[in-house]
């Protein structure tokens, strides 16, 4: 039974975050015994995802087209919400209230992990602020050390553009992950955002 397809699928599930032996078995046998329709839907969708998922050349969000559907839309307000990964952009988009654009940095500055500003999409954010006549940049980064270092760097980089810089309101607790914040709290944090103050 070692290299058979069942074992391979179980092992693949277990490589996903938060999935252990038990959950992997639950997923597998649910698909096999109870929901074959989801099994084929999932197989087809994953194949397609693998083929078409691409990061947007402008904002770096993951989508199936580049420029992404948000960057190509003409209805978006001249606001950019800066996030560390696409996951957070999708979480904010999920609230349905935000009508601006996004900019995915691709991580956070981390001296410990050796991630420097040059490793992230920060300089092209400044170009966008100028070229797209952006009126406000909302910094929506995690409230932990790396998030704060990165916020500080982003704010300094944008300083001479004169753009208004704001932060999500701190209804979010320290170290909280945007992605796991419930939509209502996230919406409130967006609506009551505060001016970014340089320390
Ligand atoms: Zn885009």
How would the blueprint of this fold be written?
Elements: H1 5-14, H2 21-34, H3 36-52, E1 54-55, E2 62-63, H4 69-72, E3 79-83, H5 86-95, E4 101-104, H6 123-131, E5 136-139, H7 145-158, E6 164-167, H8 183-191, E7 194-195
Helix pairs in contact: 1-2, 2-3, 5-8
Bound molecules: zinc ion (ZN).
Folded structure, characterized:
The chain is an alpha/beta fold and 199 residues long. It has helices at residues 5-14, 21-34, 36-52, 69-72, 86-95, 123-131, 145-158, 183-191, and strands at 54-55, 62-63, 79-83, 101-104, 136-139, 164-167, 194-195. It has two domains: 5-52, RecR Domain 1 (Helicase, Ruva Protein, domain 3, Orthogonal Bundle), CATH 1.10.8.420; 75-195, Dna Topoisomerase Vi A Subunit, Chain: A, domain 2 (3-Layer(aba) Sandwich), CATH 3.40.1360.10. The protein has eight helices and seven strands, in the order αααββαβαβαβαβαβ. The strands form two sheets. It has a five-stranded mixed β-sheet. Helix 5 (86-95) packs across helix 8 (183-191). The longest helix is centred in the N-terminal third of the chain and has 17 residues, at 36-52. It is elongated. The termini are far apart. 24% of the residues are buried. Residues 56, 58-59, 61, 67-68, 70-71 line the site of zinc ion.
Q: What's the CATH class of the largest domain, please?
A: Alpha Beta
> Unreliable runs, pLDDT <50, ≥5 residues?
none
In the residues, how many domains can be counted?
2
Mean pLDDT: 90
Put simply, the count of helices is: 8
Whole-angstrom Rg: 20 Å
Main sheet characteristics: 5 strands, mixed
- E-strand count: 7
Distance between the termini: 60 Å
CATH T-level fold name of the largest domain: Dna Topoisomerase Vi A Subunit, Chain: A, domain 2
Helical proportion, percent range: 40-55%
What portion of residues belong to β-strands? Answer: 5-15%
- Ligand set: zinc ion
Class from helix and strand fractions: alpha/beta
Q: What is the string of helix and strand elements?
A: HHHEEHEHEHEHEHE
Main β-sheet, spatial strand arrangement: 4-3-5-6-7
Shape: elongated
């Amino acid at each position: 039974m070692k290299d058979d397809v069942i074992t391979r699928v179980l092992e693949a599930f277990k490589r996903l975050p938060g999935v252990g032996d038990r959950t992997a078995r639950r997923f597998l046998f649910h698909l096999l015994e109870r929901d074959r329709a989801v099994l084929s839907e999932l197989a087809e969708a994953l194949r397609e995802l693998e083929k078409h998922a691409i990061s947007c050349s402008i904002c770096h969000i993951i989508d199936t087209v580049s420029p992404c559907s948000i960057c190509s839309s003409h209805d978006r307000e001249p606001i950019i919400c800066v996030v560390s990964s696409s996951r957070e952009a999708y979480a904010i988009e999920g609230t349905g209230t935000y009508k601006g654009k996004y900019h995915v940095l691709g991580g956070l500055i981390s001296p410990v992990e050796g991630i420097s500003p040059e490793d992230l999409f920060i300089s092209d954010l400044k170009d966008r602020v100028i070229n797209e006549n952006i009126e406000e940049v909302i910094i929506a980064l995690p409230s932990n050390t790396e998030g704060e270092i990165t916020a500080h760097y982003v704010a300094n980089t944008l300083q001479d553009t004169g753009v208004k810089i704001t932060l999500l309101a701190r209804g979010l607790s320290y170290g909280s992950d945007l992605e796991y914040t419930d939509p209502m709290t996230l919406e409130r944090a967006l609506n009551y955002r505060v001016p970014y103050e340089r320390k």
